Amino acid sequence: MIRSKIFQRLFVLMTLAIFVSCSTKQDQAEEQTSADSVAVAAPVSARPVHWGYDGEDGPANWASLSPVYALCGEGKGQSPINIVKSQAKSSATWSFDYKTTSLRIAHTEHMDDILDNGHTIQVTVDEGSTFTFGDKTYSLIQFHFHTPSEHMIDGKNLPMEMHLVHQSDDKSLAVVSVLFEEGKEENPNLAKMIANFPAAKGESNHITDVNLELKVNMPDHNEAFHYVGSLTTPPCSESVQWLVLGKFRKASAAQIKAFSDRIGPNNRPVQALNERAVESGDITQGSK
Ligand SMILES: [Zn+2]
Q: What confidence tens digit (pLDDT) does each residue in 63-83 have?
């Protein structure tokens, strides 16, 4: 009788201990995912595993670096893709309403959360800029760059690609992709960024008296290509709405080189389209 009471107490104590240790772990995990991380199907690892763009850490091996990166290898809805214009089916329209932002710029080196994708120059924007797709509105969070481009248009890469990352209230993601080609004149927004590049990887600057007019890099009216894809960096989470603009923006050769020297090459190769369709449509500026 006494023995069974002792066992009972031991059992209660052990259950308590397990419960406490589990909830502590959960608290830590919640802290690590932070407020601006997003809901993804894959579990979030305590520490992101290092990845890169060449050799053993390169795109072909991302899936084997960590179980959390499995979708990078197994996913059937991955990005980027090659967009074949003639095969895109006509669809709906989209709109964006971009405002002015102060320049909060970082040369990211490690992935702290999903919205800070590592290995790029990234600008975190002030609140207020939105993108509307169907009846859903997404807020612009940040934009960043890849050199050369990740998406291909009719089998061709461009020298640079900008990803404008948006998130809706339900945490789902939409990325607008703007491709850059070489032109004679400097792009004014890129000039401001280059002048304020952080000194080194892992550093960031917040320059409150330099403003970017976000509309500058967006055409008033444009054709766009839509498909459902993924993040182009580990963990390659899927169900991301992609809108790739069909009209290119221009940057000078020196500007493209300035970005490329800092971050390139940081482009994931194109992925199989599989069962997905690409739709074409119009994107317009202004609130809906
Ligand atoms: Zn990107």
A: 999 999 999 999 999 999 999
